[in-house]
Design brief:
It contains three helices and three strands. It is an alpha+beta fold and 125 residues long. The longest helix has 17 residues. It is flat, with a radius of gyration of 19 Å. It starts with a strand and ends in a 17-residue tail after the last strand.
């Protein structure tokens, strides 16, 4: 099982907003992920796509083929927070937190196993 990874640090987008896009492509094949990111109407779709391109390039340099690659793990962590203030009434100031993200993606040649579906038993009446 060969793996390849890429990391994007200090993306000036909130981790909460990036995770919505990341959850769409987690566990998919690379070609499916590119199709999903092309049509995702979110600002974070482009940086995630560029990171995925970088991870594929890293995999090719290791001798892996792009066709058989799957996203094993893609994680968004919180980076540094820029603390700013905003003027408020009566000369006071309100804090503003400008959040940033770190994104890490791991590609593998094996298809990640899908989650088992749990059968729900109907209650007897």
């Amino acid at each position: 099982m060969a793996e390849s990874k890429a990391v994007l640090k200090s993306l000036r987008l909130s981790p909460r907003k990036v995770r919505t896009v990341v959850s769409l492509v987690k566990g998919k094949s690379v070609s499916d992920a590119f199709n999903i990111l092309d049509y995702a109407v979110k600002r974070s779709a482009l940086p995630v796509k560029k990171l995925l391109i970088s991870a594929v390039a890293n995999a090719k340099s290791q001798g892996l083929k792009e066709d058989g690659l799957y996203i094993k793990d893609i994680r968004v962590d919180q980076a540094q927070t820029l603390k700013r203030t905003r003027p408020a009434s009566r000369g006071s100031a309100h804090p503003i937190k400008k959040r940033s993200s770190h994104i890490m993606v791991v590609l593998t040649t094996e298809n990640p196993k899908p989650n088992k579906k749990v059968k729900i038993k109907k209650a007897k009446e």
